[in-house]
Amino acid sequence: MLREAIAKTGKTALARVVISQRERTIAIRPTGDGLIAHTLFENRDLNSSQELFDGLTTIKTDPEMVQLASQLVQRQSGKYDAADLEDRYETRLRSMIDAKLKGEGIDASEPEEPAHTNVVDLMAALKKSLGQAGEEKKPAPTRKMAAAKVMPIKQPQAGAKRKWA
Hints:
This protein is of the alpha+beta class. The protein has two domains: about 1-55, no CATH class; about 60-110 and about 120-135, no CATH class. It is built from five helices and five strands, in the order αβββααβααβ. The radius of gyration is 23 Å and the shape is extended.
């Protein structure tokens, strides 16, 4: 009934919900045979673009660098497949639970973080990435993408159901 009423009026419903022990505003919109909720930003969560991008219009970009970056984007582009994404936190947690169920010990050590280095010459790095530094252009290897940062999962409230995407 609610989905049909929202769809018929062409409106979006607003509601407040608690997610991770914080009240948030959500927009509820009809989609297909159901409803979909989107969390909304509050004013305090937004930055003024004027402050962030002030003075950038005076910066000139090197056309060769833009060309190299475009080639890199094209080479790394592909069709999005949610199956390629992996929640590393959930994977580690699942392996620890499985090990515990088998009676094995649990390795609670953190995985090694890759060394973070600064790229001094972006143009050279782009050329090397594109194989223009003396190598033939090779197709990008297929591999599973991982989350950029592992975030701890808070326990749901008693009686709440959690659905993993």
